[in-house]
Amino acid sequence: MSQRNIGVTHQEFVEEACPIVEVIDHVAGKWSIGVLVAAAHGPVRFTELERLVNGISRRMLTLTLRKLERDGLLVRTVYPTVPPKVEYTLTDMARELHESLASLVDWAERHRTAITAARRTYDATTTP
Amino acid sequence: MSQRNIGVTHQEFVEEACPIVEVIDHVAGKWSIGVLVAAAHGPVRFTELERLVNGISRRMLTLTLRKLERDGLLVRTVYPTVPPKVEYTLTDMARELHESLASLVDWAERHRTAITAARRTYDATTTP
DNA sequence: CGGTATCCGGGACGATACTG
DNA sequence: CAGTATCGTCCCGGATACCG
Predict the structure, then answer these.
(1) Across the interface, do B25 and A30 touch by the CB < 8 Å criterion?
(2) I need a surface site. Which of A108, A118, A125, B5 has the fewest CB within 10 A?
(3) Nearest residue on chain B to A67, judged by CA atoms?
(4) B23-58 pLDDT, tens digit each
């Protein structure tokens, strides 16, 4: 990665090249997985997602949704009612992804105590 | 997330709770997937990984390896020779994860042009 | 209800240089 | 070969406040 990307941010530079690593980074990002999995059941509203995705802030939810919409993984449907109603739906491309994500989450749930234990051991042996 | 986590970083705070989102964040992080997939073939050396994982810097490779080792996903074996030789091997826990990761990478490869196209469309319709 | 705007601290990350 | 150290930048992401 040369230093001659003057006037262009690293973000833009990487997007230009669009390697898989960057695609994965979007799709498998901290919040993206939660949102994608939560939206898999069917159309989901903004506030629902806020509750379903544990620990996400309103700001990050908005940003994550916009990013996923931009990548063509989510469709945003606005119903011009009062109060407003907005629904998010997975695209076919995203639905195809769902199984991989689900198995990832499953793995994480099954092994998270083992991971916590491994960390404690590692920390104990490196910092006495 | 209360504001009363004085004296404790956000990192530490989240690790304490250790929710799946944080486990996934480690495992599915930008570089972690690449490293994990590259190491799946068998024992891999540091320099090999540097070549296999496209675009990673030496620094990030080291940090990623340490993080994965700490989480109990990688075993680091040092051979006390000159020049030194270090091998990284997946643990059983990590090997179990490999299939999910591989299908994720496969998905990303199959759809990355579609994603690039979706972005262009999105950008064109939002910023005229 | 479903956002947007602003502020700001801390972490992610590359570049560069040095080492056993 | 396989790292560590240091530095500087950019961006992630929470807190808070405001809006149609």
Answers:
(1) yes
(2) A125
(3) B119
(4) 888 888 889 999 999 999 889 999 999 999 988 999
Q: For an interface test with A, give the residue of B54, B104, B126, B127 to mutate (most A CBs within 10 A).
A: B104
pLDDT at A106 exceeding the cut of 70: yes
- Grouping H, G, I as helix, E, B as strand and the rest as coil, residue B30 is coil
Task: Considering only CA atoms, name the residue closest to the C1' of nucleotide D5.
Answer: B59
Identify nearest nucleotide to residue B50 by CA to C1′ distance: D2
Q: Positive or negative, the Cα torsion across A36, A39, A41, A47?
A: positive
The packing angle between helices B92-126 and A92-126, to 10°, is: 130
Alpha carbon dihedral A50, A56, A59, A64, in 10-degree steps, equals -90
Name every chain A residue with its beta carbon within 8 A of the beta carbon of B100: 100, 103-104, 107
Report the range of poorest mean pLDDT among A8-12, B61-65, B70-74: A8-12
Please tell me the CATH code under which domain A10-126 is placed. 1.10.10.10
Contact B89, B43 (CB under 8 A): yes
Q: Is the pLDDT of residue B1 over 80?
A: no
**pTM of the model as a whole:** 0.86
Sheet holding A44-45, edge to edge: A44-45, A85-90, A74-79
